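Final report, closing paragraph on structural work. Over the funding period we assembled a curated collection of sequence-structure pairs, and we close with a single example.
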Amino acid sequence: MRRTILALAVFGFVFGGAAFSARGAEPAAKAAPTGFRAEYIAEVNSVGKKLTDLAGAMPAEKYSWRPAPGIRSVSEVYVHVAGGDYLIPSFMGAKVPEGITRDMEKTVTEKAKVIDTLKKSIEHVKSVAENTSDADLDKKVKAFGGHEFTERELLIILLNHMHEHLGQSIAYARMNGVAPPWSEAEPAAPKKS
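Its predicted structure, as stored:
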């Protein structure tokens, strides 16, 4: 009987202590991405900051401006970027958050909401890159009508999409007298004598 009690006490101490110690331990920190994923996230941070800074610099009353009928407006371009930030990773299995729809370009038009939508989409892209393993970068998936791409190719397409519409947004801003916040001041025109 004494042996049984002693055995139970030792058992409880060893396994109970281990369980207590495991519960109280801090979770291991997730390793920061390296290689392609780290470089990719740095590029997303760069283009994302330029997009959101330019969106912030554009006056709210210009968000409905478009260069010609049938061409996306200022707000539609930024929301289109956000839509791509959600659509393209969905081919890799990333969940599209509730409320993200194809008609967002027409329904999200207020400056503050456009910028918020854009910022959240950029965070989504970075999260997808952080949570894609190096091995999965070479995994082939079907996208855009059943064409095969590696997940790395889709991430590159997504980054290209962001840069393409940053260029479009710069042109829109310049056409409306807004200089990109990160650009240097224009040199003064030489005086005519």
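The two ends are 112 Å apart (CA to CA). Residues 33-175 form a domain with the Four Helix Bundle (Hemerythrin (Met), subunit A) fold (CATH 1.20.120.450). We thank the funder for supporting this effort.
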